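Researcher: Go.
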Amino acid sequence: MEMPIEMQHQAMGYDRTATMFSPEGLLLQVEYAEKAVKLGSSSIGIVCSDGVLIIADKRIEDRLIVPKSANKIYEIDSHITASIAGIVSDARVLIEKSQVLAQQHRITYDSPIEPELVIKEISNVKQQFTQYGGARPFGVFLMIAGINRKKPELYTSNITGNYFSYNANAIGENDDKIKEKLREEYSKDLTIKKGVKLALKIFREIQGNKFNLKRFELSYIKKDDVKIIKLEGEELKNFSK
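Model: Structure:
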């Protein structure tokens, strides 16, 4: 009886380090890290006609935890916001690096940093941890939304350090199902209000009886008024009608 591929990999030690390729051309520690991201709570990002938004499921069900202490959306600069899926402690390191990068750019050039420069620098850091021994990959996907010269932009960086620009995207739990629905219903004519309504509708369809508006937080930036607006829980009721 032939041994399953995964057991062969383990027996041969291909998954012992992030720098060793398997015979199929895979970095198995990177594959495992991507599975950790799939266990993280979901976020949806949408580029709209009047701005860009990220809405995230904080998935906090323990009544003893103060909800505001469990953020899934972070401010990088006054015109850039970000959400994560995966190991939150890994993400915190990358978020803090992004914030420092944005402030250094303002001090050096007296201008706001472009969102792509942030995601590119973070992706470079993530790539390094797939190429050198003695460290594991960052177990986190990072989604960045921002305004660049009045143009709304959305980027996502994966485990390997690759990044892409998106019209709409999802990371975390059930991301494949969410992205399939986004492909069906996304339109470039969506306003922020309609985009939030669409995202909440998708979450409601995916989560079913587990859907609870109190678990969600929203961050959006309008292209004509570059200011981050944050709402959460019951404050999202007006968008769900």
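Model: Strands lie at 43-48, 51-57, 73-77, 80-86, 140-148, 151-157, 163-165, 168-171, 216-222, 228-232.
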